[in-house]
Amino acid sequence: MKAVPSFPSYCLVTGTGGGIGKALVKALEEFSFPVAAFSRGGDSSGDLSPLPHPADSAWHFTGDLSDFDRMDMLLSTLIAAWGPPFLVVHNASVLFPRIPLWEEDGEHVRQTLRINLEVPMFWVSRLVPGMIRAKRGGHVFVSSTVGRVARPNWGTYAVSKAGIEALSANLALELPSPLFSFSLNPGAVMTRMRQKAYPDKDPADRKSPEEAARILARFLARLREPDAGRAYNGRRMDLDRLEDRDA
Ligand SMILES: NC(=O)c1ccc[n+]([C@@H]2O[C@H](COP(=O)([O-])OP(=O)(O)OC[C@H]3O[C@@H](n4cnc5c(N)ncnc54)[C@H](OP(=O)(O)O)[C@@H]3O)[C@@H](O)[C@H]2O)c1
Predict the structure, then answer these.
(1) 193 CA → ligand 1 middle, Å
(2) What are 180's strand-pairing partners?
(3) Pocket perturbation via mutation, ligand 1, pick of 115, 193, 239 by most ligand atoms within 8 A of CB
(4) What band does 244 get if pLDDT is binned at 50, 70 and 90?
(5) Residue 57, CB half-sphere, CA atoms under 13 Å: how many?
(6) Does the pLDDT value for residue 47 go beyond 90?
C-alpha cells in the first residue's frame, strides 16, 4: 500500500449544523482527518480566532452559505492558514414540502436552487484553482436517488440534485489528474430532512446519521492515499455500496 502523503490535508464540509454533516465532522476527527466545518450557527471558533497551524481536529466557521461575501471572507482566512482543502464535501441542502411542481412556492424554488446548486458551484469556482495548483484533492457532491431517477412530488429538490449530478460529471471531465469529483447518494438516513420528506411513515430502512457518517468517513480517509480518489472520478457512488467495501 502506498504511504499517506506527509503534507497537511483537511476536509471542508458544508452544512455541519445537524444531520449527516454534523455526524461526519465527528467521524472524520476519529479518523484523524482535520475538518473545516461550515454551519449556520453553533460553534463559531473559526470566525475570529487564528486557526491552529498545522491543521488539526475540526475548525468551525459560521454563516449562511448563501451569503457569498461572508463565505469569501471566511475562505480567505481558511486558505491563508491551511491552504486549499484536500476534500470538499458539498453536503448542505434544503428540502421544502413535497408537492407537485406547479404548486411550489416561488421563494422555496429560489432557496432550493441557491443552497443545493448555486452554493456548490460557488465553492467549486473558489476552490478548484488552488487545488489544481496543489495538484491534489477532490469534490464529493452529496446527491439523492431523486437526482438520478425521476419520482413524483420531489419538485425543485430533485431538479437541484439532478443539477448536482451534472456538476459533478462535468467537473470530472475538466479536472486534471489526479484531481477528482464524484457524487454520493447517502440513501435513507434518519435526519430532520428525512422527517420532512416522510412526516408520517418512512418506507425505507434508515441508518442513523452516525452510522452513515462512520461509513463515509472511513471511505474518505482512504482517499488520502496518493491518487486513490482519481479511481472514482466521474462516478455516481452510493453509501450502501461503500458499506459492502468494508465487509
Ligand atoms: N437524510 C436522507 O435520507 C437523505 C437522503 C438523500 C440525500 N440526502 C442528502 O444528504 C445531505 C445531508 O442531509 P441531511 O439529511 O443531513 O439533512 P439535514 O439534517 O436537514 O441537514 C442539512 C444541513 O444543511 C444545512 N444548511 C441548509 N441550508 C443552509 C444554509 N443556507 N447555510 C448553512 N447551512 C445550511 C442545515 O443547517 P441548519 O441545521 O442550520 O438548518 C443542516 O445542518 C443533503 O445534501 C441531502 O440532500 C439525505
Answers:
(1) 6
(2) 138
(3) 193
(4) low
(5) 6
(6) no
Q: What is the pLDDT of residues 104-149, one digit of tens each?
A: 999 999 999 999 999 999 999 999 999 999 999 999 999 999 999 9
pLDDT band, residue 246 (cuts 50/70/90) = low
Whether the pLDDT of residue 247 is over 60: the answer is no
Give 137 Cα–ligand 1 centroid separation in angstroms. Answer: 23
Neighbouring residues of 49: CB distance < 8 A, sequence distance ≥ 6: none
Write phi, then psi, for 108 (nearest 5 degrees): -65, -40
Pocket test for ligand 1, best of 146, 183, 189 (most atoms within 8 A of CB): 189
> Hunting for cell 460529471 — which residue is that?
169
Q: Do residues 94 and 115 lie in contact, with contact meaning Cβ atoms separated by under 8 Å?
A: yes
Ligand 1 — pocket residues by CB below 6 A? 15, 17-21, 39-41, 64-66, 91-94, 115, 142, 144, 186, 188-189, 191-194
For ligand 1, atom 40: residue with the closest CA: 40
CA of 3 relative to ligand 1 center, distance in Å = 34
Confidence of residue 201 (pLDDT cuts 50, 70, 90): confident
Rounded to an integer, the average pLDDT of 2-17 is 75
Chain length of the chain: 247
Question: Domain 11-246 sits in which CATH superfamily?
Answer: NAD(P)-binding Rossmann-like Domain (3.40.50.720)
